[in-house]
UniProtKB/TrEMBL annotation:
Protein name stated in the entry: Protein yippee-like
Organism superkingdom: Eukaryota
Statement: the UniProt record of this protein carries the keyword Metal-binding: yes
UniProt family annotation: Belongs to the yippee family.
GO molecular-function terms, A-Z: metal ion binding
Keywords: Metal-binding, Zinc
PANTHER family reported for this sequence: PROTEIN YIPPEE-LIKE CG15309-RELATED
Source organism: Aegilops tauschii subsp. strangulata (Goatgrass)
Domain Yippee, residue spans: 1-51
Range of residues in the leader sequence: none
Length: 73
């Protein structure tokens, strides 16, 4: 049970250390929440970048207009 209703989720874990770093929505039991099915959440404070830095502490330049984190790769 989550704040937005009942969901079936799967854990996402790091293949390097085995820590759980997020979850994937497998099923939403309320019709209004079904848009989440197949989507995932990564908790930034649990994920490290390739250089060992944490993404949650990263600040973007003012001209960065948004988009996904993969835009920076």
């Amino acid at each position: 049970m989550m704040m937005t209703g009942l969901h079936t989720v799967s854990d996402i874990f790091c293949v390097g250390c085995g820590s759980i770093v997020g979850w994937k929505y497998e099923a939403a039991h309320e019709k209004s929440q079904r848009y989440k099915e197949g989507k995932f959440i990564l908790e930034r404070f649990k994920v490290s970048g390739p250089d060992g830095s944490h993404y949650w502490g990263v600040t973007h330049d003012a001209h960065h207009g948004g988009g996904s984190d993969t835009d920076d790769l």
